[in-house]
Amino acid sequence: MSRSIRTLSARARVTACTTVVALSALSLTACGAGAQGAGGGKVKVGLITKTDTNPFFVKMKEGAEDAAEKSGVELVSAAGKFDGDNAGQVTAVENMVASGVKGILITPNDSKAIVPALEKARAKGVLVIALDSPTDPQNATDALFATDNVKAGELIGRYAKAVMAGRPAKIAMLDLAPGVAVGVQRHDGFLKGFGIAEGDPAVVCAQDTGGDQAKGQTAMENCLQKAPGINVVYTINEPAALGAYTALKAKGLEKKVLVVSVDGGCTGTNAVKEGRIAATSQQYPLKMAAQGVQAVADFARTGKKASGYTDTGVTLVTDRPGTGVEAKDTTFGLRNCWG
């Protein structure tokens, strides 16, 4: 997507939390100022992320806290214990509905399995907005505020194709996990950008990493054993990319293999600057969270529901431009990174 991106700067202050409630499989924290809703009570906005350790979701929560303070609403946040923890997210939805939230913002761990819980919440009048990852089907939520993940994958696929400049490619794909829409979308986008279809013989290895650095390293080691001539590595995110780089460096291949990724966190963007990752597609979790909180606040006060898909932007970041591929350098990337 070639559009101007404006990001929301996170404030350094961390909102003081007033209540901490231990839940099975997740932690729940209520924060923010006491605003008045249409019925005279405090407007509560729920945020449920995949985990509370991934820097992307940490930054998303910070953006939501900042937006909640500005909007005068109360933020209630929860996270699964691990990536893929659908049961924890279901529990969080149920607890938030019981606590009287006006809206729930969620990054689904399982795009399909979470749908029944969200349908129950919507049936009780709760506005449900997906952040970052859509549900399956997408209309299981009222709205989606997210990166165009197909486009994010397509950008790094086009970049890799340009840098290869006609040389035969042997591609390793370090994916996320089955059933997670964001992983499928980025994977499909990369193939589209590179100009190949699923099952093309140019893809010599595919492994799931869960977006984890250690698992990314193991996956890359496995791929190198299977196909020693790999020269392009697609990674679902920057932790997986850094794991792949570690495996490549151990074999003395770090200068010979092109590694591309998605996310645009500060650690990953610095890795692009240092040459460990060739390029990344940068996305903007602060913007997702801020727009989501504001949408729930508006709904509580006016009855107007957010709907459809809102694209929160993506930018290719690299210091090694590919011919014909629009990109920004790491100076831009570091000004707009997160984590």
UniProtKB/TrEMBL annotation:
Residues 45-304 form the Periplasmic binding protein domain. Keywords: Signal. CDD domains: PBP1_ABC_sugar_binding-like. It is found in: Cell envelope. The keyword Signal applies. The keyword Zinc-finger does not apply. Residues 1-32 form the signal peptide. InterPro entries: Peripla_BP_I (IPR028082), SBP_2_dom (IPR025997). Pfam families: Peripla_BP_4 (PF13407). Belongs to the bacterial solute-binding protein 2 family. This is Sugar ABC transporter substrate-binding protein. The lineage of its organism: Bacteria, Bacillati, Actinomycetota, Actinomycetes, Kitasatosporales.
